[in-house]
Structures are given as C-alpha cells and as structure tokens.
Amino acid sequence: MTTSVFPSISTPAGAIPAAAPSWNRQRGSQMPSHRYADAYSRVEVPLAAEEREWPTHRLERAPLWVPVDLRDGNQALPEPMDPARKRRLFELMAAMGYKEIEVGYPSASQTDYDFVRLIADTGLAPEDVTIVVFTPARRDLIERTVASIRGIANPVVIHMYTATAPVWRETVLGRDAEELTRLILDGGRDVLEFAGDLPNVRFEFSPEVFNLTEPGYALDVCDAMTDLWDARPERPVILNLPATVEIATPNVYADQIEYMHRRLARRESVILSVHPHNDRGTGIACAELAMLAGAQRIEGCLFGNGERTGNVDIATLALNLHAQGVDPMIDFSDIDEIRRTVEYANRAEVPARHPYVGDLVHTAFSGTHQDAIRKGFAEHRARAAAEGRPEGEIAWRVPYLPIDPADIGRSYDAVIRVNSQSGKGGIAYLLEAEYGVELPRRMQIDFSRHVQRHADRTGDEVSAEELWRLFRDAYAAADGAIALVGAESSDVAGAPRTRLDLRIDGETRSSVHDGVGPVEALTAALADRGVGLDVLALHQTSVAAGSDSEALTIIEYRDRAGGGTGWAAASDRSVLSASLAAVMVAANRTAGARVAAA
After folding, report:
1. Mean pLDDT score, 496-513
2. How many angstroms separate the CA atoms of 108 and 76, rounded?
3. Which pTM was predicted?
4. What CATH code would you report for 482-597?
5. Residue 23 carries which DSSP code?
6. pLDDT range class, residue 548, cuts 50, 70, 90
7. CA distances from 422 to 364, 432, 437, 448, 567 (A)
8. Which one, 75, 168, 225, 257, has the greatest CB density within 10 A?
C-alpha cells in the first residue's frame, strides 16, 4: 500500500484551497497585500468554465507580428532614438521579414513626424511592408497624423486609441461610459474625414486598458467602430485589445479575448490583435494564451522594451513557436546581430539570461547538465551519420537545449563552460571541442577532481585553455630523473626488436627486447632497473592546434610495488614517440612516489 506524503484536501474541482494546509503554513509577511484585492476583484472573467474553448487549442501557425519598438518602445527610452538609430532599427526589422511595422507617433514629436515623412519621401520601406502610425482620438492630432502619411505608397494603418477602463474614464478623462463612447466615435469620424479617401489606408482601434474594461462595454465600443468604419473582408478593421497594465493571471486575459472573438459583430471583417504588457512578468503567457483564444495579430517589441516592465517580447514569442516546430515567419538566423542593433537603438543592454538572445542562455555550468548535453550531442551526430544526412536536418533532442543554437547563428563554443559547479562531462566536452582530445571515462573522473580543486581555490570560471594547462600539469609533467635517451625499432626475421637506452641516476644502460612491441619493451627495461609498472590501458587521440596536429597518448598504469594506479600522457608528432614518452612520465611519477613514501 502506498501512502501519499500530502494529506487529502477536499476542494471543488480546479479550485485552490482558501487556507494553507498543515504542511504549507507559512508566516505572514508585513506587506500590505490587502490594498490590491479590490482592483483584482474588479477584473471580470467573461466566460463560464464550460464555455471556454481555448484550453483545447494548439498553436499551429504564426500570427501577424507588429513590432512597436519605434513608437511604444521608443517613448519608454530615457533617450529616445534619433533619426539614425530609428532608421537602422527599421531597416533591421524589414530585413528580418516583419510585414507590418509601427513607425511612430507623428503628432507627439517632430522627430516622429519627420521619420514618417522620411518614409514617404524616400521610399525607405519595402513595398510589401505596411506602415502603422499612432494617434489619440483627438481631431487636431488625427489631422497631423494623416498629414504625415500623405505620399506613402505602402499600405498604411492609422491606429487610433482611447483608454476605456473605469478608473481611466473617471480619473484621467473625466467622462462616463456614454460620453466616452461619443468621444471615440467622433475620433473615428475624424479619421474617415481626413483619410477615408486614401485607398491604401486601413484603420485600427485600441480600447486602451481593455483588460480592465467591462467586457460588454468593450464589445459595444468595438462593434460601433467596425460599423462606423464599415469593416469588410477586403478592407478589414484591426481591433487591438491591450493588456495595458497586467493585473490578473493570463488565463483571465485568454477568456477576455475569446469572449470578443466569439461575439464581435463583424468577426470575418476584423483582424483581432493583442498588445500585452509585462507588469506581472506574464506578458508572453498572455500573448500565447490570447493566440489560443483567437488573436491573429500581436503587437510588441523585440526583446520586450517598453514602459514599466515592458511590452511583450515578440522575439521570444516567435522563437517559442520555432521551438514547437512552427515556422515563426521571421528570420532569426543571426540573433547576435539583431541584439547588437537593438542595443544600439535603445542604448540598453539585453540581459545575459534573456530567453534565446542572452549571452548565457545556451550555457551549462552544472555538471549534470553538461554530461547530458555532451551525450546528447554525441547521439545527435551519430544519428546524422547513420541516416547520411546533415546534422541540421535531424530532429533535435539534445537535453537542456530547447533549440539548436546553430539555428540562430550561435556556435557551440559557449554551450558548456566550466566552474566549481561543473563535472567531468563538461570538462571532457571542452577539451574535445577546443583541442580534439577525447578522455577515457575513468580519466574524466580523475581529472575532474583536479579541476574542482582549482576552481574551488580560485572561484573563477575555467577556460578551455586553462583546462589544457591543468591537464598537462596533472598528467604530462614529471621530474625527469629517469630518461629515455635512445629508442630504435626494427624487424628481425619477421619479429619485432626494440633497442632502448635508459639513463637512471646518471648511468645509461642499453637493452634489446625481441618479440614484443616498443611499449612492452620499455616497461620491461624499466622493471630491470627497479621501476616496475604495468600499462593497464592505452588510449590514443590527437591534439588539434590550428593546421598542426600532434598525437596524444594517454595511459592508465599500475605501480607493481605499491599497487596504486595513475594516469600519464604525452604528445608528439610521432604516435610511437608519444606512447613511449607517456610511459616515461608514468615511470618518473612512480619512482618519485616511492622516494616520497620512503
């Protein structure tokens, strides 16, 4: 009979216990959390549990991505972009394959206005890229916005917004729901007056702070706008539903999006868009669940720049799709160049642990992770060889790496890095990757102890170069009291013969050995001079160093007198010379150990 370590909890299906059970009673904090319960309780969940369909859906295609770095992201920067930075970032996004780009808030600043005019006057935008401009629902600002786009040959979207949530209506705008609806419709009429005759222009409306707006009111306003703008399949209206300030869990936002998706009056003539922010750190989750709930278009910033904690990170979202086998329809094959450009434009660094793009996101320091990754790479390469196909075409299943770093232009150089938390697998991987040296498994265990002591002592990360130095110090260096001053191999009557000249304590003696190989001959000669050792295993590999390559011989040996075992290594252009040199390292260490013991 098996007994659970958790006591049974009697709660309704899917509910969370109101009080902590005995095994989870924690001391209360002194934080005034109760102050926020009222705001959270005002968020309406518009679907009953049996109504919602989004939990059964899967993400199978990319949405229409709309980077808003040049407007929303730009207004959140301590130093807004100058024209040169804006242009470089715009050209990057166009080159990556974004087909709709929000380029500015032309009524808010002369810089934004001038950048929109630059697009109009120079044809900067590829012809298949839609230009989006942003405006509040105010007549004079709408007029200036339309003036900025005149002459643009590309498709254009005029994006009009007004905050609709109760606190914003009452505190910021000083209007009740009916008055605000009239203001929004007046703005929509102004858009039609100034731009309704432009055949390349479509319209977008955002009920800002949608996620804190009464669902019924948001639906009524959106239906009124699609009716006013005569949304049709051939000229659809974009309805953008922002989670402007995150205050509830992502599943609530998904319910709100599905509510709109299933009830909009002209759904077939609407492109349903979302614009999540990241106040709770769940902007990505909100966007992914919103797509499951019916969203077709996502506004956000590359790497998530934006007001407060930022807009949703559309690069991470796209690469999440890639990691699930869905084409993101955007080119991330040079992620480091994308990052450099965004950092140049924003004058802000991307954190080292930022998903996909951070310097350390594909790096393992932990020994268990390193061992799994090393084995995963080996298995991946073996499958590619067995199938006779390039490694880049083989299904990816390397532990701890959700995608192949090569997909986004990353090398494998920094996948495994060694510090005091690392183990034998990571050490072996680095030596093999940087020097082509394959360590026997038992030697990996032995060498990891040397590296661990060094890392504990210094507290520093251990580079591949430092590992190679530690390896040579641990296994290839020894006091040269015993020297092999001459070695000659020949064949006599079909049998091997080896002549050896050994110098011990200043005295050189020669010996000839028939019928055995050079390594066996050397151990026999050493035994005759009082240094008895057995070679238990001999492993040969190579050391790659640029265009040169040396043979590396690694031996496991046993001291015949003391019974202890050890490892020794030596390298040379000649495989035979490397093997004999490794035996001599072992002999000197064996002799030295005996002297120390005496």
Report:
1. 89
2. 13
3. 0.75
4. 3.30.160.270
5. G
6. low
7. 8, 16, 18, 8, 21
8. 257
Enter the tokens of residue 498: 């080896």
**All structural domains of the chain with their residue ranges:** 59-346, 367-476, 482-597
Spatial neighbors of 597 by CB under 8 A, at least 6 apart, are 562
Q: Whose structure tokens read 């990891």?
A: 448
How would residue 309 be classed by pLDDT, with cut points 50, 70 and 90?
A: very high
SS3 assignment for 243-299: ECCCCCCHHHHHHHHHHHHHHCCCHHHEEEEEEEECCCCCHHHHHHHHHHCCCCEEE
pLDDT band, very low/low/confident/very high, at 569 (cuts 50, 70, 90): very high
Report d(CA 540, CA 544) in Å as an integer.
13
> pLDDT grade, residue 561 (50/70/90)?
confident
Cα 84 to its chain centre, rounded Å, is 29
Has residue 41 got a pLDDT over 90? no
> 3.20.20.70, 3.40.630.10, 3.30.1330.40, 3.40.50.300: which CATH number matches 59-346?
3.20.20.70
- Return the half-sphere exposure (C-beta side, CA atoms, 13 A cut-off) of residue 174: 0
Question: Which is more confidently placed, 186 or 399?
Answer: 186
Phi, psi dihedrals of residue 253, rounded to the nearest 5°? -60, -40
Burial 115-139 (b: 16+ CB within 10 A, else e): bbbbbbeeebbeeebbbbbbbbbbe
Q: Write a three-state SS string for 161-174.
A: EEECCHHHHHHHHC
Among 158, 251, 247, smallest CA distance to 210 is for 247
Fold for the domain defined by 367-476 = Helix Hairpins (1.10.287)
Kindly write down the DSSP assignment for every residue of 439-489, as one continuous string.
PPHHHHHHHHHHHHHHHHHH-S-B-HHHHHHHHIIIII----SEEEEEEEE
